[in-house]
Design goal:
The structure is a single chain. By secondary structure, this protein is mainly alpha-helical. The chain has a single domain, classed as Growth Hormone, Chain: A. Helix content is about 70%, strand content about 0%. The chain is built from 18 helices and no strands. The longest helix has about 30 residues. The chain is globular and about 60 Å long.
Amino acid sequence: MPVPAPAGEPGPPSATPGPLSAAHRRTTLSVVAFITLVAFESMAVATAMPVAATALGSVRSYGLAFSSFLTASLLGTVLAGPWGDARGPRAPLAAGAALFTAGQLTCALAPTFSVLLLGRLLAGAGGGLVVVALYVVVGAAFSDALRPKVFGYMSAAWVLPAVVGPAVAGWMAVHLGWRSVFGVVVPLAVVVALVILPRVPATGTGSLEATARRRVLRGAVLAVGAGALQVGAESLTEGGAWPVVLTVAGAALVVGALPGLLPRGTLRAARGLPSVVGVRGLYTAAFFGTESFIPLFLVTERGLRPDQAGLALTGGALGWFAGTSIQTRNLTRMPRHLLLVAGGAVIALGIGVLVGVVLSGVSGWFVLLVWLVAGCGMGIGMATTSVLTLRMAPPDERGLASSALQLSDNLGGVLGIAVVGAVFAALHTGDGGQDDLFAGMFAGLLLVAVLAAVVGTRGRAPRRAEPSPPASATVLRP
């Protein structure tokens, strides 16, 4: 770099071989290949879901198709951390790839929406295992100076799927049927897994401590609680006592399980790693809660075709890549923890403008540009949380810390989608002309993005020699 790195920033990347050097090339390309597959699946499913939900007569339960995936990811995420530390990342990666593939096949063959949700649960559990395993690989294989570039490559892997994925998936959903969108992922997943697995380390510390086993149990409780919370919240309008009981019980299980799964102090935004992990969840709640309903809004309220509506996802992913490039170069020379604040602020800006676009009744094509801005905020913030987490965590607990980060990621998405999904299920009439409903949903998530920017101010590491307290018991997106 032409100027010295500020305190706490990595030194010049030229001091060590780069991610594409002979020493690292195979590992880098293997990670990027799997992320490319995950990216295509994410873009394709989000584009085709309005068609699938309509065909199966379950538009009011639309949000469950996304939040169920993330709920199952919670369990996979919690399991993958200690499993990867103890046995190496190959075993959880292999199990994750198998579950992910089985879930896609189940969705492709689903005769009802309930079976589709089962497939999303299987795929989500596999996705949780895969993402954390890849983080363990990155933490073990690359130095602190190289990790920002590696995360940049991981974001770059979303570019091609983001550009062609929505158009291809939209065309397939209309002309070949929505089932083909899920089905095409199955052979691709098998091929990518067979290529990657031989290049992934198969050994770890060799021990699975009692605390790790307790974490897995807590993770199961958390996943069950999150699932109960979603189903109960979406059923409140049906009347009766059981939706209320299910919602309250689910919320109690989530609150009770979290303290043993996240770094101590996360819920009160303690300085350092706890706030970094907390910000991650706020990012995903705001962004994915909004993005999940954008294609449905564009199809039902603005009359766009599925492939056209999917272009909003393309804009978000391209913005995400641009934001990740900014944090990789850190062009502003801003202390890295302040990039957490910048990420939340830019996400809030994008969602705020989106609310204005919805209320103004202008063409849905403006949403495509607006969502590029929000995606840029996610690129800045999400990659920064990854870098800071691996920097602050002790080397032998990177699996736990990565698991905590991904758990916060998934739980944020679950809660963001579940809350707006419950509002949508309660107020959606199916008659169109409900811009106010979508605007209200998005406005609530705007407040979450603002909160992310506020909590980001707490992301600086405590002033002491040792790292921040580790995770005591702790879909890829770019």
